[in-house]
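Retry 2 of 3 after timeout on previous attempt. Resubmitting structure tokens to design endpoint.
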């Protein structure tokens, strides 16, 4: 078959895997790079343009952060049923190739940068409402839990981080 021709019948997953594994080394490397490009994408306006897992709004930095904080693949797949074990492998591969980018995003999105004592927290709302000053943890947590833009799993993860770091209950 000419490389430009399209097969009349789609290949079965096994036939496709065999075809890919039989590629010469240079072609296999090109295929793997192309696959990585399609599996991890940066889309302007989606998650701030951060690298996300294929057709999801799940940033690579978030998954890597979960893994670094002790979540295992089983827990991740249970909490993110749209992901596969292969997605997690590709995510880790992307991280190995772009470690500084992902580490910087983890730091930028992490609660560890909060000072140990917080008397006033300013939150900017995405709905263009003016900033609101919050003077205690209960107000902060109430605003945080009410935010519809954050996934339940991410809220749980961040709340556990607050509880551990600042002994909030």
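Retry 2 succeeded. Sequence:
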């Amino acid at each position: 078959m000419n490389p430009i021709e399209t097969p009349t019948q789609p290949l079965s997953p096994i036939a496709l895997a065999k075809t890919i594994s039989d590629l010469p080394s240079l072609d296999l490397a090109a295929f793997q790079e192309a696959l990585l490009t399609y599996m991890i994408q940066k889309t302007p306006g989606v998650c701030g343009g951060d690298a996300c897992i294929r057709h999801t709004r799940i940033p690579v930095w978030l998954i890597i952060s979960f893994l670094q904080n002790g979540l295992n693949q089983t827990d991740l797949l249970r909490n993110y049923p749209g992901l596969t074990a292969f997605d997690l492998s590709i995510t880790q591969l992307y991280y190995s190739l772009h470690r500084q980018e992902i580490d910087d995003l983890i730091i930028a999105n992490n609660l560890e940068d909060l000072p140990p004592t917080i008397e006033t927290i300013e939150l900017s709302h995405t709905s263009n409402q003016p900033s609101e000053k919050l003077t205690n943890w209960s107000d902060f947590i109430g605003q945080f839990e009410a935010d519809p833009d954050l996934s339940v799993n991410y809220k749980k993860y961040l709340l556990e981080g607050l509880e551990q770091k600042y002994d909030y209950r």
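Attempt log closed. The longest strand covers residues 40-42.
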